[in-house]
Structure prediction request, 313 residues.
Amino acid sequence: MQHDLLRELAILECSQGEVEKRERLILDLTGNNFPDWSVIYLLTFNVYNADKTFSRPWPNLQLPKAEALVLNFETNVRTKSYALPEFIKKVDKLKALIITNYSFSPAELHNFHVIGSNLRRMRFKCITISFFMCNISQASTSNGTKIFDAIPGLVEVHINYCNDLMTLPDDICEIKLLKKLSITNCHNLFALPEQIGQLVSLEVVRLNSCTNLSQVPNSIRTLQELISLNISDCLSLSTLPDQIGQLVNLKSMNMRGCLRLSKLPRSIMRLRNLRKVVCDKEKEGLWVPLKSSLNSLKIIASKEEANLNWLND
Prediction:
């Protein structure tokens, strides 16, 4: 059986054609031992840097067909600052950028100016992004260029376990096509831009486990396309926006673990399309009286459970 399996794997490997012309390619890199070929045709380029040192110059890769780039790496004691590879600047068709740091120590990421205007999806995990005070000039440029100015076509932004993130840059609110904003486990995030209401295409907002977030801006009321709001485990959140009832298309809200939230705004009765609310058992009483006005509302109440996510911080 093992022989047959190995034979099938060998056949599959050979059937995929020339390595550098495959649509999906995973490169397991050690140090700076990059492939010899300079032209790679692919849709997904997944780099895993085994010895954690991709801070030195990358080769001048040519990726004319690449639509997704995945960078996986780990930090070590010597190297905690990483530059996005310069070759990204020439990947004209790049639509998705996913960067994941698999170590427990956050890594500083810079050189954002290489990102092109076609990018649609961006995901960061355990990355220290130097755009405090809104400019990436602190990290990669000296001309004050803003990180999101160069990528106006983004439809998704995911930021996870970025513990230095205290505020979002204001220019993120200028991405008119943005549909999904996910900022999770960013424990030092304490405020969102008041201009967040300008993101008129937003359909999903996830802010779960941002434990220092103290309020959601009132301007969120203008997000008429919003259908899902997740504020679970936002331990410092004590109130919801007064005019949250203007979110006429909101269908789902998760407020589980919002321990300081003790009352709901009156306007919440106007959320006629609200179908599901997830909350703690202790907060269920806030919603039960509203069921007569919100006929389709389903309340999912659960007992508080121990959350061990903080062990990864």
